[in-house]
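Async update (no meeting this week)

Hi team, since we skipped the sync, here's where things stand on the single-chain job. The sequence we agreed to prioritize is pasted below, unchanged from the tracker. I ran it this morning and attached the output directly underneath so nobody has to dig for it. Comments welcome in thread, and please keep replies under the output.
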Amino acid sequence: MMRIFNHSKKEQSVFIIAELSANHGGSLKTAIETVKAAKRAGADAIKLQTYTADTITLDVRNQHFKIDQGTSWDGKYFYDLYKEASLPWDWHEELFEVARKEGLICFSSPFDKTAVDFLEKLNTPIYKVASFEITDIPLIRYIASKKKPIIISTGIAGIEDIELAVNTCKDEGNEDITILKCTSAYPADPADTNLLTIPDIADRFNVTPGLSDHTLGIEAPVVAVALGAKVIEKHFMLDKSVGGPDAHFSLDEGEFKKMVEAIRKAEKMLGKVDYEMTEKKRISREFSRSLFVIANVKAGDLVSEQTIRSVRPGYGLHPKYYEEILGKKFTKDVERGEPLDFHMFE
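Output:
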């Protein structure tokens, strides 16, 4: 299990990440206020993205670099989108410091080696590999070599891609791996989330499982937790009216807080495997069925369907004795409504 979980919570607590992404609107003030809002909303961590348009793509204006995949970003060139969305690198140090003061863990997704080197100087405690970078094995190898917990999203990945990424980390001596089920659609259709993959990820790859969620609403993260997710990542923004590349599938503070509350409630509901006969159960058993005398009987009368019955409450003999005692004789007079016990018949 990911070591970072032990920072201040019980080991089994779900680690909830607020993804800042492009939701800064080009304003450092907005970015800082978003970090503070993430803390108020109950997040454990705030995640950044560390790239520039030049480290992630090329400034080329041909059909290869123009988005045309049925997304809200269609018609834009990759370079322009990433230039708008990128978080300036000279903001990172202040955001890390604000998060620290707020009691939040701050980390990032690097998109090339220079970003990794930059984040190392900031002493990032975790690295995240974005969905579309899962095939960048040299980058994953370099990140894994830093021997810090590594989280990898699987949005575009097949089994072979996940196996290769996990094995690359392990080859570098880094086995602190979390794999997030992810659907790379923005927003994602609930029918495409396939959350049953989460327990399979844990079993198949022997890693910590989680969910990076792009659906609208908060249902998917709660279901994911019920299926064993230990990490939940969700895009977060201060105010949807600000707009931006990721606004249409992000949660605001109120929505994120409701998600956190629902996740924490789900954790309590999951509890543990428990068959213990607690005091509460013992008291509640008084409302269960038991055998009662249902007619006034005299000594010598038969124990029969006409004289006993299984009814509530549970003060008489267990109903499992019903067939066994039919045909026996009462040894004393008993009034209707008395709980049956072995001393009443032979």
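Quick observations from my side:
The chain has two domains: 3-51+86-270, 279-344.
The first helix runs from residue 28 to 40.
Reply here if anything looks off.
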